[in-house]
Amino acid sequence: MVTSLEKAAGIAFRSLVPNRPYHVQWMVTRKCNYRCKGCNVWREQDSRELSTADIKKGLDILKKLGVIEVVLSGGNPLLRDDIGEIVDYASHSFVTTIYDNGSMAEEKIEDIRNADFVAISIDSLDAEKNDYLKGVKGAWKKAMKAVDKLHEEGVNVVVSPTISQFNLYEIADFTKYFLKKGIPIWYCLYSYDFSEGSNQLFKIGKKNDEFVITDRKAMVKLCDFLIEMRKRNSNILMTQLRYLKPLKTYI
Ligand code: SF4
Fold it and tell me: Is residue 215 part of a domain?
């Protein structure tokens, strides 16, 4: 984590900019080593990537626009050879989070050490269920090991699940489990764009009937649980807590 007076002052100054975007998620690669069921990225991989210099230029533009928080995602951003340089550059100006599906964070720990948060994606406490969702055998074991290792090494690791009908009933226990271990849970409140073909803007989500939340009552109950838990525990992180309340009516 980079904590400098210059960074803090820059963030404080940018937060005064009126009508600025707050949060940006940047897919720095479309390459991925996993095969998640609800994802389109690995089905449509693309080896073209912006150069390191172009990414830095982009980050400079985001800074000028007043952005505070940057999430580096993909694909798996850790598949980029220059990811350490990108993380370091971003971390000097933004609250920076980097995503990993749990497969590479341990081996690339020195590259990601300066991020403010390393988000490891885990969707279930049930290894088999998690591996089914990720499309890779052994994914759960590897991700859990990475979380422990990063935590031990003093890296700010957080766990980030994707909520779906598949894991809806276990999210409360999942949250409590990691909080008990002192690991924050990060609920990144994005919704997927499931449009088909060329209409799909970012080509991220893959429509999957298994994931569609059919038990709306349970989802509303979960939102209430998270809102209440969040009041008592600052280790529950959310992109924007205020979105949870309107989300309940949308469901
Ligand atoms: S959800 Fe993330 S980890 Fe899984 S296949 Fe898609 S890009 Fe890769």
Answer: no
How many domains would you assign to the chain?
1
Ligand 1 pocket, 98 CB below 6 A? Answer: no
97: number of CA atoms within 13 Å, CB side?
Answer: 26
Is the beta carbon of 41 within 6 A of some atom in ligand 1?
yes
| 8 CA from centroid of ligand 1 (Å) | 32
Q: Do residues 80 and 54 lie in contact, with contact meaning Cβ atoms separated by under 8 Å? A: no
> Whole-prediction pTM value?
0.89
Q: Answer yes or no: are the C-beta atoms of 185 and 237 closer than 8 Å.
A: yes
Residue 235 forms part of a structural domain? no
105-144: pLDDT as tens digits: 999 999 999 999 999 999 999 999 999 999 999 999 999 9
Structural domain boundaries, residue 72: 5-207
